[in-house]
Each structure stands twice: as C-alpha cells, then as structure tokens.
Amino acid sequence: MRTNSQTFQETLSIYQELITRELKIFFEKEIQIAAAISPHAKLMVERLQEFTLRGGKRIRPILVIIGFQTCNSDVPLDKILPVAISMELMQSFFLIHDDIIDEDILRRGKIAFHQFYATNNTYCNARHNVHFGESMGIVGGDIAAFLGTKLITESNFSQETRLAALKLFQEEVVKTCWGEMLDVLASQQKFSEQELTQILDLKTAGYSFETPLQLGRILAKKSSEEKDTLVHNVSIHLGRAFQLHDDILSIFGTEETIGKSIGNDIKEGKRTLLLLKTLENASKEQQVFIEHCLGKNNIQLEDVLRIREIMRTTGALDHIQTRAHQEQLVAKELIKNSKFLPEAKEFLTELAEYVVDRKS
Amino acid sequence: MRTNSQTFQETLSIYQELITRELKIFFEKEIQIAAAISPHAKLMVERLQEFTLRGGKRIRPILVIIGFQTCNSDVPLDKILPVAISMELMQSFFLIHDDIIDEDILRRGKIAFHQFYATNNTYCNARHNVHFGESMGIVGGDIAAFLGTKLITESNFSQETRLAALKLFQEEVVKTCWGEMLDVLASQQKFSEQELTQILDLKTAGYSFETPLQLGRILAKKSSEEKDTLVHNVSIHLGRAFQLHDDILSIFGTEETIGKSIGNDIKEGKRTLLLLKTLENASKEQQVFIEHCLGKNNIQLEDVLRIREIMRTTGALDHIQTRAHQEQLVAKELIKNSKFLPEAKEFLTELAEYVVDRKS
C-alpha cells in the first residue's frame, strides 16, 4: 500500500479515502434501516453521517490500519476497514456529547450536532430550542456509540476477535468518560498539574491513539485481550503531545483553522495545563484579569488577545510548547526502539511530528 | 425455585432479593475500580449504585430469569444473574438521560441523578449548576450503558452466547433511543395515534419486556441470534398495556406512589395517547385550556385537577383504561397458548395482571 517515496500527507490521504468510502457504505445502509422506522430517524442518521464525514482527519481509523501493520498478518486490509471505522462512530459519540457539555456551537467549522436541532425551525418551537437541541444531541450521541459497537459485532472476524474488540471498545468508552467527567469538574474546581495530566491521559491518549492501535493489533490476531505495554506508552506520550498542542491551538488558532469559536476554552473556563502555567507565572493583576474572563459567556476578542499576550510574556506558552516537544521526543524514541514493522514505524514517527506541528 | 402456592408478590420478592444482592456485588467491585482512578469517579459509581438500587421493581432482570424459564435449560440460575443485572444498568442509563431530557427533578421518589450534581454545593459554583448537573448526568448515563455491556462481555458464557447477548443489548439501545427521540419530538409536534403507538412500542415494549425475555432465552441456549416471534408479540402487548397504564398513573397518581412530581407529563408537554384522546373528545374551550397548560413550567395543582376532570368527563380515561385491558387480554391469550414451561406461563400471566393494576 505504501512506498518509501510517499510523503506522510500522501499516505494520510490514501487511507482517508478508503476510510471515507467505508463510512459512506455503512451510513447508506444505516439510513435505509432508519428510514424504515421513521423519517425523523432517517434524518438523524443523515445528520450523523454528515457530522462524521465533515472535515476530520480520520486519524483514529488510520491508526487501526497502522496498528494492524505493526505486526505481520495475513488478514487482508479490506476486512479490517468496517471495524476500523467504528473508531469514527466512537469519536462522533464523544464529540456530540462533549459539544453539549461545553455548550459549543461549532465543530469542524460547521454547526455542532445538537445545534442543528436547536436552530431548525421545522423541528422545534422557539421556546425550548436550546434544551430541545441538547435532548436530540444526547440521543444522537447514544445512537452513534452503539452503532460503533454494531460495526464490530457484525464484522467478519472470529467470535474471539470480535469479543476482544468489543471489550476494548467498551473499556475505552468508560475510560474516556472518566476523563470527560474530570474535565467537567476541572472547570469548577482547581485541579493540580498532576490531575490535569491524568485527564489528558484518560480523555485523549486512549481513544485517539492507544485503542485504535490495539484494535488494529487485535484484528491482526497478534494481540488477544492482553494489551501491549509499548503501544500503551507510545500512545500516552503521543496523546500528551497532541493535547498540549491542542490547548495552544484553541487559544492561538483562528476560527478558520480550528473550526471552533476563538477563545472557547476561556469561555468554558477550561483549566488546561497552559492556563495553569500562565496563572502560576502571571502577576496578581494578570491573574485577576484571567480569572475574570474564565467562564465568561460574552468574552471579547480583545480579552482573548490580552490573554494570548500574557501567555507569551510570562513564558507559559514557551513552557507548554517545550513540554509538547519533549513528549513527542519520548514517543519517537519508543517507536524507534520498537519491533514494529518498518512501515508502521515510519508512519508513527511522522505522526509524532505532525501532532505538534499541525495548524488545525 | 417457585411453588404453585407462592403468590406473584412473593415470587417477585424472592427474585428481587437475588437481583439486588448481585447488583451490590457488581457495584462494590466497580467502586473499587473507580476509586483507583479518582475519588470523583468513585463517587459517581456510588451514585450509580444508589440510583440503580433505590426503589425499582427489578422487573427487567426478573424477566431475564423468566425468559430463561420459558425453556428447559441445564444452565444453573446463579450463572445467569450477572448477565440479568445488565438490564438494570441499561435501565439506569435510559432513566438518567431521560430525566435530563424531560427536566425531571425526582425519580423513584428521590432526587434525579443529574440533580444530585446540580444541587451539590461542594461540587459546583452556583452560576452553572443546572448545566453542570446535566453534564455530569450525560457522562454518568454513558458510563452506566457501557458497564451494562461489560457485565455481558465478562460473564462466564461461551463466546457465541456473549456475542448474541451483546448484539441484543446494542440493538435494544438503538431501538429505545429511536423511541426516545420520537418522544422528544412528540412534545414539539402533533403526532398521530399510530405514531404515538409506535413510540410506545419502541420505547417501552422492547427494553422492558422483549429484550429481557429474549436475553434469558439466549442464556438458556434455546435461542441464538434469532428472536422468538411469540416473545416479541407478548412483549408488544404487555408493553402497550404497561405504558397506557403508566400514562394514566402519571396524571392520576400521587407523588408518593409514582415517585415523580404530579403533572410532569403536562409540564413536559408530553403528548400521550391519553392526552390525544382527551383533546379529541374535549370541547373547544377545554382544548384551549389543555393546550395552554402543556409545557407550562409552573403548572398548578388546580390545573392538573381540572385536566383530570376533563379526562374523566370526556370518557378519555375510560377509553384508555379499556385499551390497556384489551392489550392485557391479548397478551394473556398469547401466553396461555404458548409452549412456555408452566412456571414461566404462570408468572407472565400474573405480570400481565400486575401491569394494569399497579398503583406505582
């Protein structure tokens, strides 16, 4: 599938195309099934399809393929695609519920899932529109989660493989939910650096890196229920690098590149490691100003610009960028010394570069 | 386990005790696991335990036992209990999300799951308490759902049986979610009698009757992935009888007996079959009054009393009671002519009586 001359971006787009095609096949089938129940069910699966297919880099299903390629396997790639895309359903489930929780309006540059229902006049009377949208989003997320497990249950793998994959899926959901719960609390309470790092490990490293890679290995029949420690460690460091960079992007990125409103993390009062470091380094006056902005619904662009400036001048931005690079280096070192097959090694190394260099 | 002289209530309480004990064992284990993650995770599993164990009749896990008893099986009862209780986790998942959607404050006579977080001062600042509670409830419900699947994945049954049970579980979740989604829409749009009946079939008959019974049969190894049509039909009619009676209870019951606030269905603007019939039979003036009350947040007791009176005098109450009894009769006839084993037949017949006679 890959030659050495292919660049990382080329590889990504080849796999992205495969994944997108597979997702479309799946959703077309599910739309038919839902249409038999009700036109409203059909519309919701269509919305799930649009939400899942819009933007997004398909990193997680691609990592299933890469995890599969870490080992020698005679299973054909075609066979693993329907299971690989279950990761995108899990992702849609998390994002839909997360956007309700964070009261986000935009996702991937377009309207958040629940906001479609909240703002659709044919669907709701004006009185309750926010709550109506959230209600539809709660149910839509629940459905996405269990359509994800369906992809595994109904796949062509042996009973043993399917059960191992389902177990991995459900454990990951519970783990990510703990991360999400702690994240919700982190906007209400002051958490330590250690606690914030734990959230990041629970909420990002698992479902973004470790679980897709382990799933690929399960499908290659090289791992049964026993998880690989090396994959775990690589994922933890990739996940931290990714999330630290993400926290920077969400303050310093433009609405265009990140697909979310500027200053969202501030508005939500999200206490990221970047924010923690900034508060630690800031003057009393700067601290008061930042605390005043946190959780403020009508935060102005000039407030965000001033916070950016504080993050720069206090050295907090530098500090977090350095930490992201350190995590990236650890991940790269682990990958280099691993016994993964060469093409998986190459991709993961390039991915490690990508997670801290990306603009979106 | 049962003798002919045992009354239905005695049988219920014997099984309730077994189920409750099993739930406690499960939750104690999960509390330990969560405690290793964070004291907040531990607290949430404790809340899930309290929520799941409070009140509740354990009808669904008991129906797993009864489904199991519809066939001759040499599997010991002890072995099926850990899987039977997965139905209570599914139930908690639905109730937690449903209470957020319906903005309910009470459940089973106590505070709703998300309300615990919304009103707990050590946990949240006052500013966002409602949304904070809902956020914690969304995550708590998600966790309950996947702890439910975990009970199946980690049970002692063969891979084939566990996969069949997981498939049943996930299909039921998706089906019930469609019912829930249509139910949300039914408070925004005018639905026909046929559409309301479909909601009832999707939202109640499946997870309350059919899925527990089919799960029991899967565990008895008498049914693989193929569902039994008779069990389906019995469940549809039991489900309708149950829900029609439930709609009556939620208007005519007291807060004490139903464990929810009086007039909740009115406040939520829920368009039940009872309400549809009432509007159909009511005078223009009565219709205007009822429509005015629907979805009204601060509905007064006297408004509810007047609506009760309209439901009585227009004959709508009688009509729905009769329909509930008709559904019950169909269910009983199907059970009578079935080839289920005698003790399962007896229990299901008594259950059919119970669903339309109960006070709570």
In short:
The structure is a homodimer of 360-residue chains. Chain A has 17 helices and 2 strands. Chain A is mainly α and 360 residues long.
Explain what you see.
Two copies of one chain form a homodimer. Chain A has 360 residues and is mainly α. The first copy, chain A, folds into two domains: 18-224, Farnesyl Diphosphate Synthase (Orthogonal Bundle), CATH 1.10.600.10; 228-351, Farnesyl Diphosphate Synthase (Orthogonal Bundle), CATH 1.10.600.10. Helices cover 74% and strands 1% of the residues of chain A. The first copy, chain A, is built from 17 helices and two strands. In chain A, strands 1-2 form a two-stranded antiparallel ribbon. In chain A, helix 5 runs parallel beside helix 8 and helix 8 runs antiparallel to helix 9. Chain A is globular and about 60 Å long. At the A-B interface, helix 2, helix 5, helix 7, helix 8 and helix 9 of A face helix 2, helix 5, helix 7, helix 8 and helix 9 of B.
Question: What are its keywords?
Answer:
mainly alpha; Farnesyl Diphosphate Synthase; 360 residues
CATH class of the largest domain in chain A: Mainly Alpha
Oligomer: homodimer
Strand fraction of chain A equals under 5%
**Rg of chain A computed from alpha carbons, rounded to a whole number of angstroms:** 21 Å
Strand and helix order of chain A: HHHHHEEHHHHHHHHHHHH
Determine the fraction of residues in helical runs of chain A and give it as a percent range. Answer: over 70%
**What overall geometry of chain A do the principal axes of the alpha carbons give?**
globular
Number of strands of chain A: 2
Q: Give the biggest sheet of chain A.
A: 2 strands, antiparallel
Query: In order across it, which strands form the biggest sheet of chain A?
Result: 1-2
Q: How confident overall, as mean pLDDT of chain A?
A: 90
Number of DSSP helices of chain A?
17
